Amino acid sequence: MKAKKPKDITAIFREGTLIDRALAAGVREAIRRHKQAGVPMAIWRNGKTVWVDAATLEPKPRNRRSKPRP
Questions:
Q1: In the beta sheet, which residues pair with residue 41?
Q2: Number of folded domains in the chain?
Q3: Residues 55, 60, 66, 67, CA torsion sign
Q4: How confident is the model at residue 69 (pLDDT cuts 50, 70, 90)?
Q5: 69 lies in a domain?
Q6: Given this model, what pLDDT does residue 65 score?
Q7: 4: in domain
Q8: CB–CB of 28/59 below 8 Å?
Q9: Mind giving me the DSSP string for the chain?
């Protein structure tokens, strides 16, 4: 079995891409679950917290890279 290369957490935070992807995936999952349960979702809009029907929310599409990473 091939050993995994340890991740450099400092580099991950500096780059930010993995963190951004994880947050976006979490948002998509939260919207999906709220839609499935039929319950409203609290979001931040115009400087205030508001409750909205999750069915009206559309998650941002996944950012598909045109080229594979080196």
A1: 52
A2: 1
A3: negative
A4: very low
A5: no
A6: 55
A7: no
A8: yes
A9: -PPPPPP-HHHHHHH-HHHHHHHHHHHHHHHHHHHHHT-EEEEEETTEEEEEEGGG--PPPP---SS---
For residue 25, give both structure tokens: 């995936």
Domain that holds residue 23: 9-55
Within a domain: residue 70?
A: no
For 3-62, what is each residue's pLDDT tens digit?
Answer: 777 778 888 888 888 889 999 999 999 999 999 999 999 999 999 999 999 888 876 666
pTM above 0.90, yes or no: no
Q: What's the pLDDT score for residue 67? A: 45
Residue 20 and residue 13: Cα distance in Å, rounded? 10
- Does residue 19 lie within any of the structural domains? yes
